[in-house]
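Quick illustration for those who missed Monday's session on complexes.
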Amino acid sequence: MAGSVGSAAVELDDKVAMPLVGLGTWQMTGARCQAAVRTALQVGYRHIDTASMYRNERDVGRAVRDSGVPRGEVFVTTKLPPGAAGRERRTLHDSLRALGMDYVDLWLVHWPPRERALVSTWEALLAARDQGLARAVGVSNYSLAQLDRLAAATGQLPQVNQIPWAPALYDPAVADGHRRRGVVLEGYSPFKNTDLRHPVLTEIAARHTVTTAQVVVRWHVDHQVVVIPKSASPERIAVNFDVWGFSLPGEELARIDGLSRSL
Ligand SMILES: NC(=O)c1ccc[n+]([C@@H]2O[C@H](COP(=O)([O-])OP(=O)(O)OC[C@H]3O[C@@H](n4cnc5c(N)ncnc54)[C@H](OP(=O)(O)O)[C@@H]3O)[C@@H](O)[C@H]2O)c1
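Prediction with NAP bound:
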């Protein structure tokens, strides 16, 4: 995939493509969040990850409008807070009002709700998709067994599961489990869970003349795992997205996968 455009994406269904690299926005609000989202859109990101709980949907929406990038070209994810079971529709309307948008590209259940609301919450997400308020729906922080429970109850698997993912967390059984079910694996906290000075990463980065952070992002892309690094720094926002001029051969991917056993 080396040399391909920065909009490399995975298909969620025949109508919705999700860019593999997005900007995470947790712990950024106000002008700082707006500047980060504008910078990201300027340097080529077309995917922004927010959540009701981040209290920055208003900033994300404003930055998307101010960027001049057409709404239809930006993939926007938001998430239902765990305490909002039973109030799903009202919560989505609040998110859309804050974002200033009439739909989101992806709406996720942020964390599994209490057991007896697991299925009803998922049904509310499916209904929102049917009504065009979310182009795709999924979950976050769910186990494979929980994905199967939703499918058994409704016949519909989540399109995406957003979970912590990084070389040190690499688990081939989890990756395969998602692939076999056709659920896109979206990783979060790629850097917080990584020692960016690990000698395996520094050696591979030097070979490609990139930074270890870029190696970590590219490792996700080469595994077709969606990744949403967060940065408030314009330089790091740009660097984290500049991963289209190289790719990791199988031997390097395997060495990075192996960090999950060595750390
Ligand atoms: N679904 C969930 O439950 C859940 C949970 C956690 C996160 N998330 C999502 O995933 C996103 C990413 O995860 P995260 O924010 O936890 O952590 P992250 O993206 O792994 O790491 C962010 C940290 O790394 C630093 N950083 C960014 N680029 C860097 C680079 N090139 N070199 C060195 N350091 C760099 C950032 O500092 P600067 O800002 O100073 O650059 C910040 O301190 C979140 O923002 C959120 O959207 C979802």
